[in-house]
Each structure stands twice: as C-alpha cells, then as structure tokens.
Specification:
96 residues, alpha+beta, Alpha-Beta Plaits
Length: 96
C-alpha cells in the first residue's frame, strides 16, 4: 500500500474578502474531491489571499500515486483564480 501526500501553498490574487477566499477554495476543493481524494484546508481566516491545502490518497502502486499527485498539482496550476506558490509531494510505502 502506498500513501501519497501533497502539500500546496496557494495565493488567491483576486480575493478581496474571506467570502471571496471561501468561494475559490470551495470550488477548488470540489474539483479535487471529484477525483476521490481526501482534501484538507489549513489556513488562517485573517489571511484572505492565501491558503494551504493538503491532499492525500492511498494506492496499490507507487507509479499511480505519483501520477495522481502530479495531476493534482497540474489541476491547481491550471485553476485560473489561484497561483500555486509552493508544493511538496511525499510518498510512503507500507513495510511488510
């Protein structure tokens, strides 16, 4: 079993309020959840132009886990309302 974890730091240049931020983040989160991923938002409400996003998945293949997290990164980069400022992808394999 392979566990893939992605950490993404995202900047939302068009956000002028927490309401704007929530709208953008919820839209992005829904797109990611349609891919059967676990998505967590780590942010401070006082920062309405920045959000940290965590994504996790379980796979039977290291190749598949890498492929899916690469697709997640590309999806975030292509999302017109955000700028991906930093990302980190990690993988763990269960020891037998």
């Amino acid at each position: 079993m392979i566990v893939g974890i992605g950490y993404f730091e995202i900047f939302i240049p068009g956000s002028r309020s927490l309401k704007d931020k929530r709208r953008v983040v919820n839209s992005l989160r829904q797109k990611l959840q349609r891919k059967n991923l676990s998505v967590a938002i780590f942010d401070e409400d006082s920062l309405w132009k920045r959000v940290d996003l965590g994504v996790a998945l379980v796979s039977s293949s290291p190749h598949k886990a890498r492929e899916v997290l690469k697709e997640v990164k590309e999806l975030i980069e292509s999302f017109s309302e955000v700028v991906l400022t930093q990302s980190k992808l990690d993988y763990w394999e269960e020891e037998k």
